[in-house]
Amino acid sequence: MSILDRFLHPPAPRVEAVGTEAAARLSAIHASAFARAWSPLDFERLLGERGVVADGLFLGRTARPVGFVLSRIVLDEAEIITVAVAPEARGKGHARPLLAHHLDALARRGVARVHLEVEEGNAPAIALYRRAGFQDVGRREGYYRKADGTKAAALTMALSL
Q1: Domains of the chain listed by start with CATH number
Q2: In whole angstroms, what is the distance from residue 91 CA to residue 114 CA?
Q3: What is the pLDDT, as a whole number, of residue 69?
Q4: Residue 89 in 3-state DSSP?
Q5: Which spans in the chain are helix H?
Q6: Which residue of 24, 84, 107, 137 is surrounded by the most CB atoms within 10 Å?
């Protein structure tokens, strides 16, 4: 493949399972997206738990994820714990295939219903979840602490697979 072909037709994004080996990178992505970042050790612990499933988003031929979604499965339900995309990959539609792949993987594991919480002011995330079919099921006032010390409500959403 020529340089021109690679430029005009870059490889499609791919989604693959990630484990504890990706903890430092996931922590860095998480820190770029949330006021209260989780440490690499937090991710190592989570990724080492039984029932925790994580998928990474990879662009091109890189071995470093530019996004991820992490869920915990209990019986036939799952909770999406966190989703984040690195700043350089945001706003390009990459979260859609990442979430779709993850939801499909959860369904293949026998999950019938998926739950999540999202900051009420996070319009891009809410739009992503609603496009995927999630419905609002509740609201938690003052759930998230923002970087400036104020608090924001969380929307709780659910999807039947």
Answers
A1: 3-160 (3.40.630.30)
A2: 24
A3: 98
A4: helix
A5: 3-8, 23-33, 40-48, 95-108, 123-131
A6: 84
**151-160 and 77-85 strand pairing:** unpaired
The CA distance from 56 to 67, in Å, is 6
Count Cα neighbours of 122 within 13 Å in the Cβ-side half-sphere: 20
CA distance 34 to 23: 16
For residues 88-100, b (16+ Cβ closer than 10 Å) or e, as one string? ebbeeebbeebbe
Reading the block at residue 96, the tokens are 């859609």
- Enter the tokens of residue 18: 């990630």
Tens-binned pLDDT, residue by residue, of the chain (161 aa):
555 555 555 557 899 999 999 999 999 999 999 888 899 999 999 999 999 999 999 998 888 999 999 999 999 999 999 999 999 888 888 899 999 999 999 999 999 999 999 999 899 999 999 999 999 999 999 888 877 888 999 999 999 99
